[in-house]
Amino acid sequence: MPGGAFGVWPWACLRGAGFASDAVLSLAAPATAALLSALPPEKGDDPALRACFDDELLRIRGYLRGVAQDERFREAVLWQNRGAFKTGVEGLASRPLEATANKKVRQRERLITLYLQRYCTKNDTIGFFGPVGWARLGTGTEALTLDPGEALIEERRVHFETWCIDALAEALCAEPALRRWAPPRLLPYLRLDGGVLHAPGMPPSPLPPAHAALLCACDGVTPAMTIAARLSAGPSRAFGSEEEALAALEAARAMGAITWGWEVALGTWPERELARAFERIGDPALRERAEGALSRLVEARAEVSRAAGDARALDVALGRLDETFHGMTGASPTRAAGRAYAGRTLVYEDCRRSAQVTLGAPLLDRLGPPLSLVLSSASWFAAEIVRGYREALVHLFESVRRPGEDAVELSTLQRAFLESGPELVAKGGHGPLVVQRARRELDRRWAEILDLPAEATRVERTVAALRPRVREAFGEPVPGAWAARYLAPDVMISGADVDAIRRGEVTFILGEIHLSNTLSSLFVDAHPAPEQLLAMVDRERAGKVVVPVFTKDSWPQRTRPCLFPSDAYHYAFSSEPSPAPAERTVRVADFVVVRAGDGLEVRHRAGSPRFELMEFMGVLTTSIAASAFDLAPAMDHSPRITVGDVVIARESWRVAPDEIPFVDIDDPLARWVEARRFQRRLGLPRFTFIRTPAERKPCYVDFDSPVLVELMAKLVRQSVEAGAPGPIRLSEMLPSFDELWLVDREGNTYTSELRCVVYDPAGLAGDGASSPPGVG
Questions:
Q1: In angstroms, rounded to a whole number, what is the distance separating the alpha carbons of residues 183 and 608?
Q2: Exposure of 743 by Cβ count < 10 A (0-12 exposed, 13-18 middle, 19+ buried)?
Q3: HEC string of 610-652?
Q4: Does residue 10 have a cis peptide bond before it, meaning omega lies within 30 degrees of 0?
Q5: If DSSP codes are grouped into helix, strand and coil, which group holds residue 190?
Q6: Radius of gyration, alpha carbons of the chain
Q7: Could you give the 3-state DSSP secondary structure of residue 243?
Q8: Where is the Lantibiotic dehydratase N-terminal domain positioned along the sequence (predicted)?
């Protein structure tokens, strides 16, 4: 990275909206807005204003019906929520426009508004309405090149949610004849030692030799029938018959010692893993039955794929998939209603954008120096969080260590960690206390560095002026846990078009900085050559890397972390199956924790492998704090802060819900008039994003649009009704609509951002760089 010590990957993920940005501008009422600006505040009920407003609102409501009838919009909503499509989109599209709208019509119009603003102004990554693109970062002399491609989308892929395949496997396993060919697996928090079964919190349980041999054979791969045949054959057989061995397996399952079924790990193609498992069914007729059931589900998904671009066909195909699934499993085709990112339906679609983008030296030379200053503080912050966790875990270790014993069961320490509450694992509110303490110190140091004047709306600083202050405050990057050595900044390029950017008419806006490599599975799967990303991770590996086996109820399939070294260990601690082979999977029951100098070491009972504790838990703790970094001062109003050519913090506001006076006004014009007074009082720009405590994703607001103001009011009311504590946050929209450079072949503009991956080369410099003395 020019201007700093950080390395930067040559690939950056291009995240962008899938709908042209200007579609939301038609939600504005420009004539009424101009008239309202010209009238004195007390003239908010002027008859001419009311007449103009009624005309424009009717036009906007007609436009929303046109959106509801748009083929791409209908297809997008179908993918996200078929229920909302049936009741909201279809309900509005089929209803004639009337001068007045009842409550139900207003709800439907608000739903269309909600989806439209999301598809046009948010850099979400989902389906064809938020496709994944990729940009090359290089040293060429051209600042920016863009080939938009012939069409917006280059590739579309429909994937099963893992829970769908799990449900099919469970249904098939319910048939006794098929179940015999499913593999049993000893749970990772149990261990056998000399014929004695050890379980957390339980006294050791000696087992008969036959039962001990049976549990030892439960590897999660070998079918139960094969195990039963092996242990009931020969003169030294453990069981008198296969049926006796199978009955013993059922008893072990009932007591919670094993899982017994076809299990698929959290992954992109779960049906392929299940198909490989079916190949081990020894009975040809039963194997054909299992494979046939999976094939029917796969064919139903293929029909969904073929429906791309045709909303009506997609609706039919999704319905048939639901029917096929329900007919085979008896289960509902949806789950987790109301939960975001929960994989609610059977399948999802990910798409790759056609655009080919390259950033050259002229852009990176301007971006690098200011960004490197911020990255230095983010690196310090990540290391400070790791340090805080190290100290806290030492205290936790001592609190659970029994007098006279040197070691603590890893499962015991992990349980204490997960039960520690707000100190170490709280994800709600402001995060764990260990993260909050580091954040307060980060805020304090940046406040001293920036020395913001009171009441300012714009603050500009130079790299030369800030560099010594940043170095004094944060020092050089400090190695932390492996996962925390990566940072992933989101960067927006602001320029009228590619030609303007090439002329140097460009600024950058810094979005979030994630405290880990957040190029998750959905990004990697859409890369034209994923092996290149994995090779970079292998080259930059330092020390041992341990990855938790991610649980399906905690990690969305699409956004699971997946960029780990090829020789990483996968840590199994729950009933979740590991995606790695047995030789790369470590089990929680096989490890203890001991003191090692001032820290802690995780040690296999056999003596090797061994890990420094934070290398073992680094991925887990980093995931808790990944989004904790934020440069915006925690003030009622904070200015736009620019360093060199980079806006490191947008202008933003924090307002208590009861200080927003228009949210309970029912009359559309009166609500809009009051909203614009609120806008003027705070000095808000026309284009703003709002974030409420009850909704993690921001929503676009145009104060010239009565329907977007109505949507804002609804979101604030919902937050209050949910009892979500905290202020309403507003921030300026940057880049604005006239500063969007990403275009398609027809010249339509799209919002976008680049998610880069940076790292500290010194912190990743060699195989034992992260291990303390004596750990190997």
A1: 28
A2: middle
A3: EEEHHHHHHHHHHHHHCCCCCCCCCCCEECEEEECCEEEECCE
A4: no
A5: coil
A6: 29
A7: helix
A8: 69-711
Sheet of strand 591-596: strand arrangement: 408-409, 591-596, 599-604, 610-612
- Report DSSP state, residue 219: B
Q: Is 475 helix (H, G, I), strand (E, B) or coil?
A: coil
309: left (phi over 0), alpha (psi -120 to 50) or beta: left
Q: How many CB atoms lie within 10 A of CB 179?
A: 19
pLDDT in tens, 53-66: 999 999 999 999 99
pLDDT value of position 448: 96
Torsion, Cα of 383, 389, 393, 394 (10° steps): 50
Asked if 457 and 448 count as a contact pair (C-beta separation under 8 A), the reply is no
Query: Does the pTM exceed 0.70?
Result: yes
Cα dihedral 488, 492, 493, 497, rounded to 10, equals: 130
Q: Would you place residue 766 in the very low, low, confident or very high pLDDT band (cuts 50, 70, 90)?
A: very low
- Ranking 474-488, 635-649, 651-665, 702-716 by mean pLDDT, the lowest is 474-488
**Is the model's pLDDT at 554 over the cut of 90?**
no
Task: Report the alpha-carbon distance of residue 510 to residue 647 in Å, rounded.
Answer: 6
Question: CA-CA distance, 551 to 250, in Å (whole number)?
Answer: 25
Express the helix, strand and coil content of the chain in percent, nearest 5 each: 45, 20, 35
Question: Which strand (E) or helix (H) includes residue 701?
Answer: strand 695-702
Residue 498 in tokens: 């590619």
- Count the Cβ atoms, other than its own, within 10 Å of residue 736: 13
What's the pLDDT score for residue 540? 82
pLDDT digits (tens, 9 = 90+) for 138-156: 989 999 999 999 999 999 9
C-alpha to C-alpha distance for 401 and 410, rounded to whole angstroms: 11
Check: CB of residue 7 under 8 Å from CB of residue 758.
yes
Provide the 8-state DSSP code for 448. Answer: H
Name the average pLDDT for the chain: 92
Residue 201 CB neighbour total at 10 angstroms: 8
Number of H helices, E strands in the chain: 24, 32
What DSSP string runs through 649-663? E--EEEE-GGG-TTT
pLDDT tens, position by position, 334-351: 986 555 554 689 999 999
61: left (phi over 0), alpha (psi -120 to 50) or beta: alpha
* Among 267, 220, 197, CA closest to 549: 267
Q: Tokens 């994703």 label which residue? A: 697
Structure tokens at 196: 């004695």
| CA angle (34, 35, 36) in 5-degree steps | 90
What would the pLDDT profile of 360-388 be if each residue is shown by its tens digit? Answer: 999 999 999 999 999 999 999 998 998 99
Question: Phi/psi of residue 231, each to 5°?
Answer: -85, -5
Please compute the mean of the pLDDT values over residues 388-405 and round it to a whole number: 94
Structure tokens at 130: 């938020």
Cα 234 from Cα 215, distance rounded (Å): 19
Q: Is 549 helix (H, G, I), strand (E, B) or coil?
A: coil
Q: How far is CA 103 from the centre of its chain?
A: 35
706, 28 Cβ separation under 8 angstroms: no
Give the 3-state DSSP-derived string for 319-342, with helices as H, strands as E and coil as C: HHHHHHHHHHHCCCCCCCCCCCCC
* Residue 130 confidence (pLDDT) above 80: yes
In the chain, the N- to C-terminal Cα span, in Å, equals 32
Check residue 97 and report its DSSP letter.
P
The mean pLDDT value for 160-177 works out to 97
